[in-house]
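Q: I'm writing up a methods section and want to include an example of the input and output format. Could you take the sequence below and give the corresponding predicted structure tokens, formatted cleanly so I can copy it straight into the document?
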Amino acid sequence: KNTFQPNSVTYLTILDICKELKSLPTVRKIHHLIDESKNLNNDDIQNNPRIRSLLMDVYIKCQDIDSAYKIFQSMNERNLIDYCAIMTGFNHQKQYEKTFELSKQIPPSIKYSSPVLCTLILQACIELNKYDDGYKIHQYGKKFLPNNKIFMNELLNFYLKFHQEKQALDIFDKYQNQQTIIDYSLLMKYYNRQYQPDKTIDLYYRLKNHSHLQIDHIIYVLVLQAIANGCYLHTSEQIYDQIKKSQTHMDINNALINMY
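A: Here is the clean output for your methods example:
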């Protein structure tokens, strides 16, 4: 203790280890040591932006979002990664209101510069029923389409949540070559909730024509639910034959029982 004084590199290394261990008591102890640290050779450990960012991230990993937010508020400068990290923590803790309120404080040059940040804000808009704000995110985020699949998935989810089927289908059809299995499942879930089994089944056959997309057990469950809702016996026999060729899953078996 008397011969060795840790510097910024030491604390960065230790925090990286803490991030993997996810030990909250250890993180708090390291945090205390950082706050009590002395400046060595102009090494301002307490205010080192990399240390503050990593310390915040470690608290988020330990699910201590309150401590993480205190670190965030103490930062003299915040970058895109810092905003994404704290908003991810808020959303994982279902504190969407905090994400939404924080989004109002972000400079536009940062706010609309990342598909990840736009996705996080859009998630909050969905949960808080903020249609106009979510629509604005779409307008500024068009430049991320269709390359960012996660943002595209969240946009579909957004419009379907607000029953804007046309807008969702416009995105879905416009980027046919970039469609994912998640896009199909989102639409099929929506149609099942709206008691439109024909549309779910049509999507299933459309999906089968996509050779680059592998049908998973979720899709099978959704189409079986649609068949059960619509009482399509002939269609059920066709799809049952197709399911037998795939590896069955417990959810599929349950859906088959419900269908019959």
